[in-house]
UniProtKB/TrEMBL annotation:
It is found in: Membrane. This is DMT family transporter. The keyword Iron-sulfur does not apply. Keywords: Membrane, Transmembrane, Transmembrane helix. It comes from Dyella koreensis. It comes from the Bacteria. It holds the Pfam family EamA. The lineage of its organism: Bacteria, Pseudomonadati, Pseudomonadota, Gammaproteobacteria, Lysobacterales. Residues 9-136, 150-283 form the EamA domain. InterPro entries: AA-Vitamin_Transporters, EamA_dom, EmrE-like. The chain crosses the membrane at residues 7-27, 33-52, 64-85, 91-113, 125-144, 150-169, 181-202, 208-229, 241-260, 266-286. It is a multi-pass membrane protein.
Length: 303
């Protein structure tokens, strides 16, 4: 990759990692549904200039049903679930949990869609799920008062939505421009969350820091991040662009540590390392080296 592409990839990881920081900063004052709605509405407004393209509008009219499903699964529901989790979980824990989406995609593809898993991907799946259990084991229970257990369950639910959205997109909107899907899905999310935003608007107006967090979440972590993501997809391909999945937890933990003074616990550090190792094996980013011809010959001689 060129230096500019590496810088864009790092910026994208920093932005998506910062989304958990901003949700943590704004969720208590806005409430989960109002924050999720304002995020989608703000992102949709930022995307409005892109609707000037007649080709994009034609694609949206043709594929509006599929784009609606993608918007609900990939934006509206995850926004609400992660915002709910942000009321109880540190930003770093939510960011680490976001890394399980590739594991769920691989597992669901194997169990329900007949996709094959070789030994490396299967072992990566088991390793990654072990890291998830490690991370969850360090949380509080599911008792009353909205403990972190329910918040972690919300994070898992958000990743289940991403999993469904990934499989659905692969089958229904593969031929549609990715930027059209991004713009359309944010408009769908904004429309879907608008009634809840109005109904559950906080009685006390949120403070300036919460508003700044919301604007950062909508403009930088959603609209700008999507533009960067699809630009990288076009320049360096999907495989290299998806390396951003390994940067999100790192930046999420870093921003939480720097700006919210969140401690990095053993469960967070250990779970993060194990989950990322599992994701690396499952997605094929890391594969064991095959023995060379000389190594095979030595092995034969030893037997």
């Amino acid at each position: 990759m060129k230096t500019a592409d590496i810088a864009s990839l790092l910026l994208l990881g920093a932005l998506w990692g910062a989304s958990f920081l901003f949700m943590r900063m704004g969720a208590d004052q806005f409430g989960s549904m109002a924050l999720a709605g304002m995020r989608a509405i703000g992102a949709a407004i930022c995307f409005l200039p892109l609707l000037a393209s007649r080709e994009r509008l034609a694609e949206m009219r043709t594929h509006w049903r599929s784009i609606t499903v993608v918007g609900l699964a990939n934006s509206a529901l995850p926004f609400a679930l992660f915002s709910y989790a942000a009321q109880s979980l540190p930003a770093g824990v939510s960011a680490i949990s976001d890394a399980i989406a590739p594991l769920l995609v691989a597992a669901s593809g194997w169990m329900w869609l007949g996709e094959k898993l070789d030994a490396t991907r299967a072992s990566g799946l088991l390793i990654g799920l072990t890291g998830v259990v490690w991370l969850i084991a360090g949380s509080a229970g599911f008792g009353g008062g909205g403990g972190t257990g329910w918040a972690l369950a919300a994070c898992v639910g958000a990743n289940v939505c991403y999993t469904f959205g990934a499989h659905y997109s692969q089958r229904r909107v593969r031929t549609v421009s990715p930027l059209t899907v991004a713009v359309g899905s944010q408009i769908v999310a904004a429309v879907a969350l608008l009634p809840f935003t109005v109904w559950l608007w906080p009685a006390k107006m949120p403070g300036v820091p919460a508003w700044l967090a919301m604007f950062g979440l909508a403009a930088a972590c959603t609209s700008l991040a999507y533009v960067l993501f699809y630009r990288l997809m076009a320049r360096i391909g999907s495989t290299q662009t998806l390396a951003v999945l390994y940067l999100i937890p790192v930046f999420g933990v870093l921003w939480g540590l720097l700006f919210l003074h969140e401690p990095v616990t053993l469960a967070m550090a250990g779970g993060c390392v194990v989950i990322l190792l599992g994701v690396a094996l499952t997605t094929g980013l890391v594969r064991p080296r095959k023995p060379t011809g000389n190594a095979k010959a030595v092995a034969c001689e030893q037997t």
